[in-house]
Amino acid sequence: MRRTRSGGAGPGTATPAGGGLMSIGAVLQQLREEFPEVTISKIRFLEAEGLVEPRRTPSGYRKFSPEDVQRLACVLRMQRDHYLPLKVIREHLDALERGEQVRLPAPGRPRELLDQALEQGAGVPEGARVGRAELLAAAEVGEDELAEWESYGLIAPDGDGGYDIEAVSVAKLVADLGRFGLEPRHLRVMKAAADRQADLVEQVVAPLRRHRNPQTRNHAESTARELATLSVRLHAALVQSALRGRLH
To answer: Assuming Cys at both sites, which of 20, 78, 165, 215 could form a disulfide with 128, CB separation 3.0 to 4.6 Å?
Structure first.
C-alpha cells in the first residue's frame, strides 16, 4: 500500500511548480536547481531504498507528485548538509509525516571535502579525515554494510575510529559496485591485487626511503604516488583490453 506524503517534508523545501504529476525527467530538472549533481540514477536509487514511492502508469512509467519531489529534496538536503545515512533520513521523514518535531544535527564539514575523494590528486587535503557517520552518508549505506566491508578488509578505520579520505573513495566505489550485484566477497580479489601492487611499489621506493640524502628520501613519496597512479591506469587498461576481447 502506497503511503501518502505530507507537505511538511522539511524547512526550506520548495514546492514544485504546478500540482500535477511529473515524469522523472521533469523531477530531475526541478531538483537540479538546488542539487546540480543529482542524476536520474540517484533518484531511482532513492526509490529502490524506499525513500520515495512514485505512482506508476499502466505502462510502468514513474509519475511523481509535488509531495514526492518535496520528499526527494528533503532527503538530498539531509545528505548534503547533515551527512545522515539513509536509514536515519527515513526515520526522520516518517516522524515528520506523523507530525513530530525532528532535531537535525549541526551541519557537518563542507560536502566538497567528500567529493574530492573521487578526484585523482585534485587538491585533496593531506591527512584529511572523516568520521564514521560522514563515511556512511558519503557511501549512502548503513552500519551493517560498512561492517561487512570491514570484515572483508576492504575498509579499515584508523586507531581512533576515523577514516582517511581514500577510505571515502573506496566506500563510494564499493557501494556503486554493489548496485550491480557485486558483493564484498567478490571484491576480495581486487583487494588482494591492490595489496600486491602496493607491495611492488614499496619495493621500488624502499631504497630511496633509506637513503642518507633528505632530498632523495622526500623523492620517495612523489615516486610512490606516481607509481600508484601508473599502476591504476595499467589495471584499468588491462581490464578494458580483456573485456574487449570477450565482448566482441
So the answer is: 165
Contact residues for 70 (Cβ-Cβ < 8 A; gap 6+): 5, 7, 9, 10, 13, 14, 15, 16
Alpha helices in 32-164 (DSSP H): 40-48, 66-82, 86-97, 111-115, 132-139, 143-151
Q: Which helix (H) or strand (E) holds 180?
A: none
Q: Which three cell numbers stand for residue 125?
A: 587535503
Cα separation values, 178 from 139, 159, 164, Å: 11, 27, 21
**Distances from the Cα of 191 to the Cαs of 16, 93, 115, 195, in angstroms?**
45, 37, 23, 6
Q: Determine contact, residues 71/52, Cβ cutoff 8 Å.
A: yes
Per-position pLDDT tens, the chain of length 248: 344 443 444 444 444 444 589 999 999 999 999 988 788 888 988 888 888 999 999 988 999 999 999 999 999 888 777 767 677 888 888 888 888 887 876 665 444 445 544 443 333 344 456 778 878 887 888 888 999 999 999 999 877 677 887 888 899 889 989 888 899 999 999 999 889 989 998 998 888 888 888 777 778 888 888 888 888 889 888 888 888 877 76
Ordered domains of the chain (ranges, CATH): 1-108 (1.10.1660.10), 109-182 (1.10.1660), 183-248 (no CATH)
What sign for the dihedral angle of Cα 188, 185, 181, 71? negative
Q: What's this model's pTM, rounded to 2 decimal places?
A: 0.49
Among residues 83, 82, 102, 84, the alpha carbon closest in space to that of 92 is found at 102
Strand-pair category, 55-56 with 129-130 = unpaired
